[in-house]
């Protein structure tokens, strides 16, 4: 489907410039789409690795807690972990990947100097509870990284879809419209030139006869 424009030389020149810009934009967007896909695939692989690792670590920690629950009374277990030894907050910033702002998350730990990660004395607790606490403490950074990577994957997927739609709009709509319109105008201009040439030849012939 061609554009509804006047078939003039000026319009033809303007459309050719638009076509050149559209073709350049299409190439840049296609390159961006390819690079986004490359980074997205890398992130998906990292996400799967992290998820498997985190699920395994959580499962092991849960087993230790179940063992601790089996050898300790519910009251003793609750009392042992009731008061935390440190406060943990989340610091969220951003970084840019291919024009996509993705989150960068960090834990900010606020603990007294020399404080232990175990919020209880060892006399009334079990080794299973110690191991469960240690595993959870170690897994927190991995959990945070997993959340960061998953959010980054989501944002990258959205950007890939937006870029894909723009590439398709240029490739299948705008560029074909411009090419068809330029072709139509060129044909019209050539037709007009042939008409003008025919008229000039007739006028010349009439003038020669008159002489």
TrEMBL record:
InterPro entries: V_ATPase_D. Keywords: ATP synthesis, Hydrogen ion transport, Ion transport, Transport. Belongs to the V-ATPase D subunit family. One of its GO terms (molecular function) is proton-transporting ATPase activity, rotational mechanism. It comes from Oxobacter pfennigii. GO terms for biological process: proton motive force-driven plasma membrane ATP synthesis. This is V-type ATP synthase subunit D. Produces ATP from ADP in the presence of a proton gradient across the membrane.
């Amino acid at each position: 489907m061609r554009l509804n424009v006047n078939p003039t030389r000026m319009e033809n020149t303007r459309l050719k410039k638009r076509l050149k810009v559209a073709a350049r934009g299409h190439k840049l967007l296609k390159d961006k789409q390819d690079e986004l896909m490359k980074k997205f695939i890398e992130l998906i692989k990292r996400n799967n690795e992290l998820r498997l690792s985190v699920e395994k670590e959580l499962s092991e920690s849960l087993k230790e807690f179940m063992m601790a629950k089996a050898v300790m009374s519910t009251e003793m277990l609750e009392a042992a972990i009731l008061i935390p030894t440190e406060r943990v907050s989340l610091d969220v910033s951003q970084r840019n990947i291919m024009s996509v702002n993705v989150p960068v998350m960090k834990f900010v730990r606020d603990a007294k100097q020399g404080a232990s990660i175990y919020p209880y004395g060892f006399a009334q607790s079990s080794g299973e509870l110690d191991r469960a606490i240690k595993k959870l403490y170690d897994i927190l950074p991995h959990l945070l990284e997993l959340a960061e990577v998953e959010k980054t994957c989501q944002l990258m997927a959205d950007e890939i879809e937006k870029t894909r739609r723009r590439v398709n709009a240029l490739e299948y709509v705008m560029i074909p419209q411009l090419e068809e319109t330029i072709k139509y105008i060129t044909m019209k201009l050539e037709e007009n030139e042939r008409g003008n040439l025919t008229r000039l030849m007739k006028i010349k012939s009439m003038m020669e006869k008159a002489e």
